[in-house]
Amino acid sequence: MENLISRITINPDVCHGKPTVRNMRWPVEVILDMLGSGMETSEILEDHPELEKEDILASLYYAKLSISGDILKEVS
Fold this sequence. Notes:
- By secondary structure, this protein is mainly α.
- Helix content is 47%, strand content 8%.
- It is built from four helices and two strands.
- Strands 1-2 form a two-stranded antiparallel ribbon.
- Helix 2 crosses helix 4 (53-68).
- The chain is globular and about 30 Å long.
- The two termini are 14 Å apart.
């Protein structure tokens, strides 16, 4: 799981410091919104080829850590 969380970056110069995927302008919340709207991983990847399956898994893992009460000491 450590490899997954390393895909989530927080940079004050990208998307106002929101957690993003690989320092791209893909906030975790947008990935979660797409999944929540019913899109399947394969559809997201087809529509957005710059994303990888691991990016989606990392977004889900980040969300899990966020709501579990675990403290994220450092996200690159």
